[in-house]
Amino acid sequence: MKKFATILAIAIAFIFSATSANAQSHLNWNDKKALNHRIHEVHVNDYLNKGDDEFRLGHYEAAMKAYKSAREHNNIDENIVPNRVIDQKMDRCADAMRRANSRDTWRDNSRDTWRNAPARPVSYSTSSNRGMNDLVEVRSNGMFYNTIAANRECRVLSVKNEFNCTVVEMEYINPSNVDNYISINSDTYLKDRNNGVKYSLRDADGIGTKSIKVYPGESHIFRLYFNRVSGSCRSVDIVEEGRSSWKFYNVPMRM
Questions:
Q1: What number of other Cβ atoms are within 10 A of residue 249's Cβ?
Q2: What is the pLDDT along the chain (255 residues), one digit of tens a residue?
Q3: CA-closest candidate to residue 186, choices 213, 165, 207
Q4: Which of 65, 117, 181, 194 is the right S-S partner for 211, CB 3.0 to 4.6 Å?
C-alpha cells in the first residue's frame, strides 16, 4: 500500500511539474510574441518618422528607402499600421521624385534665361493696359490656372486630398542674383470653387510666418495644409491675403 501511495505521489508530482512547465513555456511564448511585436512597432514608427523628415527636406530617395523599411517591418508581424498608410506615403514620395526629375530638367534648360523670360510657361494678356495686378494664365506641371501677373517666381505643383486635409504643394524659384526670403501669411486661405467655402491655413511644411532664405537660382518646395475640401470639388483658389502676388485661381484638384 505504501508502495502504491509513493508511486501515486510521484505521478502527481510529475503531472504537476509537466503542467507547470507547459504553463511556463506558454507564458514565455506569449512574452516573446509581445516583445517581437513591440520591436517591430518601434521600427515601423521610427522608419515612418524618418521617411516623413526626409520627405520634408526634399530627400526623396532617402524617404522612399525609409518607407520601404517600414513596410518590411510592418508585414513581419500583424500589421502595426494599415498597409494603405505606408502605400500612400510611398506613392506621394514617388510623385515627388518624378516631379523633381522633371523640374531639374526644366530648371537646367531655363537657368540662363531667368532675366529674359518668366520662371514658367505663362500666357500673358495682349492688352497694352495690362497691369501687374492683372490675371495671367499659367500652364505648368500639366495644369492650367490663373495667377497675378507680378508673380513670376511661385507656382502650384499639386492640390490633392490626403487623409483628413487638403494639401497644396508649391515651388518658389529665386530668379535673381541675390538671396531672397519668403514666408507665408497666416491669413492665407483655400476656397472650394464648387461651393464657395473658404478654409483657413492649418499648417505648413517648408515655410512659415518667419522668413526663410532661398539662394539665387535655387528652388524651394513647400506644402500648405487646409481642412479637407468636398469630394465633389474639382478646382480651388489659393490666396495669400494683402498685397502679396501669391494668388492662384481655378487651380485643378488632383484626383
A1: 17
A2: 554 455 445 555 555 555 555 555 555 766 767 777 778 788 888 888 888 878 767 788 888 889 888 888 888 767 788 887 888 788 878 877 776 665 554 444 444 433 333 334 333 343 444 566 788 998 887 889 999 999 989 999 999 998 889 999 999 998 888 999 999 999 999 999 999 999 999 999 999 888 889 998 888 999 999 999 988 899 999 999 988 999 999 999 986
A3: 207
A4: 181
Helix (H, G, I), strand (E, B) or coil at 220: strand
pTM of the model: 0.54
Alpha carbons within 13 angstroms on the beta-carbon side of residue 193 total 13
Count the residues in the chain.
255
C-alpha cell at 69: 523599411
Bridge partners, residue 173, by sequence: 219
Residue 143 zone, left/alpha/beta (φ > 0; ψ -120 to 50; rest): beta
